[in-house]
Each structure stands twice: as C-alpha cells, then as structure tokens.
Design goal:
The structure holds 2 protein chains of 2 kinds. Chain A contains 14 helices and no strands. Chain A is mainly alpha-helical. Chain A folds into 2 domains: 45 residues, no CATH class; 234 residues, MetI-like (MetI-like fold, Orthogonal Bundle). Chain B has 2 domains: 149 residues, D-Maltodextrin-Binding Protein, domain 2 (3-Layer(aba) Sandwich), CATH 3.40.190.10; 199 residues, Periplasmic binding protein-like II (D-Maltodextrin-Binding Protein, domain 2). Chain B is an alpha/beta fold. The radius of gyration of chain B is 24 Å and the shape is globular. In chain B, helix 9 packs across helix 10. In chain B, the strands form 4 sheets. In chain B, strands 2-1-3-12-4-13 form a 6-stranded mixed beta sheet. Helix content of chain B is 44%, strand content 12%. The chains are: A mainly alpha, B alpha/beta. Chains A and B meet through helix 1, helix 2, helix 6 and helix 13 of A and helix 1, helix 4 and helix 17 of B.
C-alpha cells in the first residue's frame, strides 16, 4: 500500500500544481482565453487612442508643460493644482462653462422632444414617409462647413430668417447678438443632429408592442395619452441614450462656435470649453492649462451622465 | 471581476508610465550644421506661390543632383501656425518652411523648433545685407535670427471704383485720407445703396484678425510704432484710442459688417472697400475694378510713405533638419536676386530686399499697380518679437471685439485693460 501511496502522493502533488496553474491561468485569462484575442484589437485601440491620451492629459494638467521639439530638454516641474486654479479663476472659462450650460438647457430637451415627436409621426402611415425620413437625415450627413454656410446666410442681418420675422428679428442679428448667439448655436446643433436621433427612436418604436396601443385605444386613450403612457415609457432606454449623446455633443462643441459665430463671438458669448482648449493648448502652446480644462470637462460630463443614469435607474 | 481589475490596473499603470516618459530623439546640431544631402521644404498653398516654389525647386535640383530638394504645399489645417507647431512637436517638420509668420517665431523658438541662422558662417550679414536695417526687427531678444525676412504684403485700402461711381464719389481721388473723410465717404456709400457696407474686415475673434483692422491704422497713426516696444504695450495711447474710436464709429453706424461672412465681401460687392496687400491684385484681376489708397489717419494720409502693417512671411529652418548646410545654401539660393525677381513677377508679393524699386524697375514699369505697394514696402512695421506673442494678440483681439466691434465697453477702458494684460504676458514668459 505504501508503495502505491508514494506515486499516488506524487500524482496528487502534480495534480495540485497543475490545477493551481490552471486556476491561475483561468483567473488571469478567464474561462475563454480566445476571447482575449478577439477583444485585443479593440483593447489596443482604446489603450492607444483613448487611455494613453487621457492619462497624458491628466499628467500634463499637474505639471508646467508646453510642446517642445523631440530631443529638446525642458523642465516639466510638478505644479500641483496650479493649472486647475488658473482654469477656474479664468473669466473666459467661466463664460464658456456658462455657455455650455445654456446650450444644454436648450439643446437636450429640444433634441429629445423633437426627435421623439418626429419619429412617432414618421412611424405612422403618413404620405411621403420615406422622403421625410431622408430629409431629416440629410443635415446629419452633410459636412458642418456646408450647413454652417447656409445658416450664416439665413441668420445674418439681411438673411431669410430676419427678413421673414421683420421687426421681430433681434438687433443686432442672431449670430452677433450676445443673447441669441448661444441659443442659435444650440438650435443649429439640434437641427443638424435630429436625423440621427430620429433614427434611434424609429428603431426603438419598432419594439413597442402594437397590442399596447390597441389596448389603449379600446380604453379610449387619446393620441396624447398613447404617446404619454405607451410610447414614452416604451422608448425610455433610447431616451437615456439620446440624452447622454446630446450632453456629450454639448461638451464637445467646437466646429459650430468656431465657424458659425466666428470663433466664439460675440465677445465670448458662444465660446465653448473645447474652443478654449484649442486656443490655449494649440494656438498659444499652453497645453497644461488646456489639459486641466479638458480634465474638468471630462469629470463634468461623467458626473452629469452618472446623475442621469442614477435618475433613470430610480425611475425604472 | 478580478481579472478585469488586474488588466485595467495594468493598463492604467502602462498608460501613466508611458505618459510620464518624455519623447526621445532629435538631431545633433553640430553634425547637422555641416551636413549636406536631400532636404524637404513646405511653401504656401497660394496658387501663385506654388508655381514659384515648383520652378525654384526644379531649378535647384537640376544643378544639385546630390542635394535634392522635395517641395510640397503646407498641409491643410485650421492655420499654418497650428500645423507647424504640431509638426515641431512630432519632429516631422521639413527643413525649411516658406510660410513662417513672424508672430509665431517666439513660440516655435520656445519649443526648440528653430535653428538660429546667424550660426551659419555669414548668416547674420546675409540677412542684414539683403533686407537692410529693418532686418533688426526680426532679431529675437537673445540676439539670434530665427527666420529670414522673406516677403511682405504692405497693407493698403482697395476701393471698388464701380461702387464709388454709383455712390457719386470720385474714383480717381476719393476722399479717404483722414478719419472724417473716410467716415463721410463710407456713409455716402451705404446711404446711397451702392453697397451694403463700406468695408468688411473680418469681425471674428481669431488672434490674427487685428492685423487687418487695427494694426495697419495704428502703424499709420502712431508713425510706425509696434504693438509692444521695450516689453511695454504702446496702444493704450492717443494713437491707439484714435484708431479704436474710428473703428467704433464704423461699426456703430453699420458702415462695417459685424457678422462672420462666408466668401469675400469685396469681390462679391457687399463691401465697397477692403484692407489688403498686393496679393489681392491677382485675386481681383478681372473681377473688380479697383483703386488703392494708403490707410487713413486722423490728420489725413497721402502718398506712399504712410507706415502700415507688413503682413510678412519669413523662411525658417527647423530643428529636425539633418542636412542644414544644404538647407542654408538653398535658403540663400531661393532668396537670391534672381529668385526674388521671379517671386515678384509670379506672385506680386514684395521680396524683403533693399531697393526693390530700382532693382526690378522694368517690372514696376510694366505693372504700375504694384508701384505703390513697392514704395510702401519700405515703411512697413512688423508684429513685435515678444514672448507669448499669440496670446498677446488674442488678448488684444478679445478686448477689441468687446469694446470696438460690439460696444460692450468703452474703447479707452478696454485698451487699458488689454495693455495691462499684455504687459504681464510679455514680462512673464511663463512657458520658459
């Protein structure tokens, strides 16, 4: 027995070692290691194009930093929160954050409301449905430079909109009016992105059971009640997505103030934080300040998105 | 969950580790200074300059087979400055760039991206002999020449003769010399319906826009003062206030457009006048029947000796250049008397060379519309070569827009505030 016991013990040790290795491999690689190979390209993509720049931006934001030629030795001392203090005490930054807030207050409800309403209309059997669907989508796929050109003509002093409104048109005109510049940018962005959000809602509406509408009809529900009690709860998840995307769009605002209001004018009333990042980081070679502003922006967006997620989960 | 946490932690550690590491590389200045071989250059994407650049490169290559030059247009971007700045950081810039704005030189120098040209034997004397005493304004505070003054576009007022005739204004001697004359003429243009606006300099907020509204008039009004002299802003002065008051009236009376305009308001007839350099002659040829006058002053300006903004572009040698001896030889070749003559002939822009009126007299006889620009070329002022140059101009532009264009503040208060901020910026040089 004893002679059998020894090999048995050895086998048992080997098994233990082998199973230990397996456990370790499984712990590190998971139950399906091949999944890592499939996921690796995207992980590399995220690491190179997202994680590294984000990490570098965070590092830069805590140092005095400017872009230098390769091989040029420059001191990059740690400055703690100095860049963040400079950002938060800069009136231009405060104005830009206020501008984004104005943008979000106008753009997000308008985007959600209009795209849901139009998607509901386009989902019904209306004449020229395909034509309307295409028409709403065209601005989304058209280059911003081209659509901005059209809006400049429409919203300038002697443009179509001001002429149509006559004495009701603001003076000075929309895009150079301190009160109207940011709302004009918000309305433009809403119009441009509407087609995409309508598509999202159209896809979601296909999944709302028709029986619910039939049951509501039998109960005598009006169109408004059907929209409120069947459609809106039925597309809640897409509403969350649309809201989040609209917030991210607002936080990333650059092309529109750069082109539509001539670099954030008038008098900085349509400057966005990203435009400021471009001006300070790229034009003026102060990437430390720009990085701190970028990090604050990322944190802000994450907080808003997190709050919205919690709110949505609570409602669900 | 644990594996994901482990991998995420590894990724973060890798990210921060990589982020904390600086770049490596660079070129040994000592060995590169005497090295010869192939080089690459960038030039402007202006059609005439492209033609000039291509012939110049072909001409060099035909006689220097072992030192081949490859030329290309500067890559597209929001601005040349942004493209060049990014290229310096990446170490991907060419040896020479023929579109280097003097306003960007301090920034590029600060990045360690420029090669001092006076380090080459006879470098400083070549620049000074070709350009004359005005070359000194391109010298950096440390005494180095980081760019070779190449060409200028003295800024003047173009007026549309057809619109002026329609408004009943003389097309040969329009009253535009003094501010009061200019304002009266502008009112006449607009009130007659001949054009929607008298003039339409870009009212947008980019840092360089003040070079085409405030700065030329300030140069004329102040007798040729730069924005900053001896590290102090000069524009919070009687001359600066006079220019600001003039433009404020133009905007307040809707004689100048306040909104961003897509296209060229002068070419389309929306505006009767434009502030342009000699490059505009080729642009408007056959499209607009124009005349040109110097920029106005309070007392009235006339003739061809009124100081104005140079709108110059220089040639700079960049730090990643490995064959700097070839680059320096090519730089001299491209700014020789012959190539300067070709530049003038093919682009209409003024080489920053002494005595161009005499040297290229046949050209100016055959092309009289360039004569006044050539005379003005001797009276141009440049942007100051100071630390934080771009930020200085952006600061000025922001306060200018707020007060002069949009009337939110008195110009006096705005210029004083801008001057205080500019003085701080020039003194601090925080990037160094």
């Amino acid at each position: 027995m004893s002679s059998l016991a020894s090999p048995g013990t050895a086998t048992s040790r080997g098994d233990t070692r082998g199973s230990g290795m397996k456990r370790f491999a499984r712990a590190v690689l998971g139950r399906q290691p091949i999944g890592l190979i499939f996921g690796a390209p995207y992980a590399v993509f995220i690491a190179v194009l997202f994680a590294y720049p984000l990490g570098l931006a965070i590092w830069i934001s805590f140092h005095r930093y400017f872009f230098a030629a390769p091989g040029v030795s420059v001191p990059r001392p740690f400055v703690g929160l100095a860049n963040y203090q400079a950002v938060l005490s800069d009136p231009a930054v405060r104005q830009a954050l206020l501008n984004v807030l104005i943008f979000l207050v106008i753009n997000v409800p308008l985007t959600v409301g209009l795209s849901l309403l139009l998607a509901t209309a386009l989902n019904a059997a209306i004449p020229f449905r395909t034509f309307f669907r295409t028409s709403f989508y065209v601005p989304y796929v058209t280059a911003s430079v081209a659509t901005v050109g059209v809006w400049l003509f429409m919203f300038s002093g002697g443009g179509l909109v001001s002429n149509a409104l006559g004495p009701l048109a603001p003076v000075p005109s929309w895009l150079i009016n301190q009160k109207w510049a940011m709302p004009s940018v918000a309305i433009y962005v809403t119009w441009k992105g509407l087609g995409f959000y309508i598509l999202l809602y159209l896809a979601a509406l296909q999944n709302v059971p028709k029986e619910l509408y039939e049951a509501a009809s039998i109960d005598g529900a009006s169109r408004w009640h059907k929209l409120k009690s069947v459609t809106v709860p039925g597309v809640r998840q897409v509403t969350t997505l649309v809201t989040l995307l609209a917030i991210i769009t607002g936080a990333n605002l650059f092309t529109e103030p750069y082109l539509l209001t001539g670099g954030g004018g008038p008098n900085g009333k349509s400057t966005s934080p990203v435009l400021l990042i471009y001006q300070t980081g790229i034009e003026q070679n102060h990437p430390d300040f720009a990085a701190a502003l970028g990090v604050i922006l990322v944190i802000g967006v994450l907080l808003i998105a997190g709050a919205q997620h919690l709110l949505d989960r609570g409602q669900s | 969950m644990k594996p994901q946490i482990t991998l995420a932690a590894a990724a973060v550690a890798l990210t921060f580790g990589a982020a904390a590491c600086g770049g490596a590389g660079g070129v040994s200045a000592t060995s590169a200074a005497s090295a010869t071989g192939p080089i690459s250059i960038w030039y402007s994407n202006n059609a005439q300059e492209v033609t000039w650049g291509e012939q110049m490169v072909a001409s060099w290559n035909s006689s220097h087979p072992t030192q081949k030059v490859t030329g290309q247009q500067i890559p597209a971007g929001q601005s040349s400055e942004e493209v060049i700045g990014a290229a310096i950081t990446a170490g991907s810039e060419p040896c020479l760039i023929y579109n280097t704005s003097p306003a960007s030189v301090p920034t590029f120098e600060n990045q360690g991206g420029l090669v001092p040209l006076n380090d080459f034997p006879g470098g400083a004397s070549y620049i000074q002999t070709r350009t004359g005493p005005s070359a000194s304004v391109y010298k950096s505070p440390n005494g180095n020449y980081y760019s070779l003054p190449w060409k200028s576009n003295p800024v003047m007022i173009f007026y549309n003769k057809k619109i002026f005739a329609k408004a009943g204004i003389s097309t040969t001697h329009p009253p535009l010399g003094s501010y009061s004359q200019f304002l009266a003429t502008a009112k006449k243009v607009v009130s007659s319906g001949a054009a929607k606006y008298a003039i339409y300099p870009a009212p947008t907020s980019e840092f360089f826009q003040s070079w085409y509204d405030f700065y030329p008039l300030y140069a004329a009004e102040s007798g040729g003062k730069q924005l900053v002299v001896n590290k102090k802003a000069t524009f919070d002065s009687a001359a600066g206030l006079a220019v600001a008051a003039f433009w404020q009236q133009m905007y307040a009376q809707n004689l100048a457009g306040k909104g961003a305009y897509t296209g060229d308001p002068f070419a389309s007839g929306i505006a009767a006048m434009a502030i342009v350099g000699p490059w505009a002659i080729a642009t408007y040829k056959g499209k607009v029947n124009w005349g040109e006058v110097p920029v106005p002053t309070t007392k009235g300006s006339s003739g061809d000796k009124v100081p104005t903004f140079s709108d110059a572009k220089n040639i700079a040698m960049y730090a990643s250049c490995k064959n700097r001896a070839t680059a320096w030889a090519f730089m001299k070749y491209s700014t020789s008397t012959r190539q300067d003559g070709k530049l003038l002939d093919m682009t209409g822009q003024m080489p920053m060379r002494q005595g161009i009126q005499q040297l290229y007299a046949p050209y100016f006889t055959a092309n009289p519309s360039y004569k006044q620009f050539a005379a003005e070329a001797s009276h141009v002022i440049e942007v100051p070569n100071v630390a934080n140059s771009i930020e200085v101009w952006q600061t000025f532009r922001d306060d200018w827009s707020k007060s002069v264009i949009f009337g939110q503040e008195s110009p006096g208060k705005a210029l004083a505030a801008a001057a205080a901020k500019v003085n701080q910026l020039v003194a601090s040089n925080s990037s160094q």
